[in-house]
Write a structure and sequence with these properties.
With 271 residues, the protein is an all-alpha fold. It has one domain: Transmembrane di-heme cytochromes, Chain C (Fumarate Reductase Cytochrome B subunit), CATH 1.20.950. It has twelve helices and two strands; from the N terminus they run βααααααααβαααα. The chain has a two-stranded antiparallel sheet. The protein starts with 6 loop residues before the first strand and ends with a helix.
Length: 271
């Protein structure tokens, strides 16, 4: 049984900080990106004027895009640490049980089952949203880099790739924005007002309804401890991290090898 008003720790500080950075970057990129995509619209011109002009809009867009790209790299390193060194589970990766829970949820919504599925730390909806976030971020970062340095990339690929990147960048931006407004807002702020990602804690009643399997483990004290750290695993992790960082540095150095790409980007007016 839960005590009235009991709140249970769900997220740690790193989860809260990561979400806050993503929140600021996402809405900042939407605010500075959509006016560039629809530059001829009056509302877009109004936003640009309020921010301080098109150059400032582009500057903010590029800064926030860089932060989002760095967060993606950091997430890759974080996953490598958790998998290679701490040997933690991957609770955000969809499994067969998630497919079963999805089907049970449909049956429950249609009145064919009496109870909704009992889910663990993350529901199938949360896992799908996570995968969409990772995929969308990868697409936005790659297409954004291509639009920012078109001359460099067209030395490797046909010029049509720039137009394809522009279409994909804008299309994915709209898809992500609408997804947040519908899917995310419904499950997090309309269906239930869930502030756990900001406070780190979730009410016991909400925990029992949304994540009963995890709550049962917490009540029994069965949460697994991280595996002991082994030196050889740290060495492998450092090698992987070095490869990731070196790859990013070399990519940036290669792209910045042509300043003409920036000038073409400015003339083209892409975002």
């Amino acid at each position: 049984m839960s005590a009235p008003g009991e709140r249970i720790r769900r997220f740690g500080r790193r989860h809260i900080v990561n979400h806050l950075v993503m929140l600021v970057c996402f809405f900042g990129l939407v605010l500075t990106g959509l006016p560039q995509k629809y530059a001829g619209e009056m509302w877009a011109k109004g936003i640009v004027l309020l921010i301080g002009g098109v150059e400032r809009v582009r500057f903010i867009h590029h800064v926030l895009g860089t932060l989002m790209a760095l967060q993606l790299v950091w997430h890759a390193i974080e996953v490598a640490w958790l998998q290679l060194v701490r040997r933690s589970a991957m609770p955000m990766v969809p499994m067969l049980d998630d497919v079963k829970n999805f089907m049970r949820q449909i049956k429950f919504n249609l009145g064919l089952e009496k109870r909704p599925p009992r889910m663990d730390r993350y529901t199938f909806a949360e896992k799908l949203e996570y995968l969409a976030l990772v995929w969308g971020t990868v697409v936005m970062v790659l297409t954004g880099l291509l639009l920012l340095y078109p001359v460099r990339w067209t030395s490797l690929f046909p010029g049509e790739v720039v137009l394809a990147a522009k279409a994909a960048h804008g299309g994915e931006a709209i898809l992500a924005f609408l997804s947040i407004l519908t899917w995310h807002f419904y499950f997090v702020h309309i269906r239930h007002w869930n502030t756990s990602i900001f406070t780190g804690k979730l009410g016991a009643e909400e925990y029992a309804e949304e994540h009963p399997l995890e709550l049962a483990r917490l009540r029994r004290g069965e949460e697994p401890s991280p595996a002991p750290i082994q030196v050889w695993r740290i060495v492998v992790f450092l090698a992987v991290t070095l490869a990731i960082v070196l790859g990013v540095v070399l990519l940036v150095a290669w792209m910045r090898g042509s300043a003409a790409g920036i000038e073409v980007f400015k003339v083209a007016g892409t975002s």
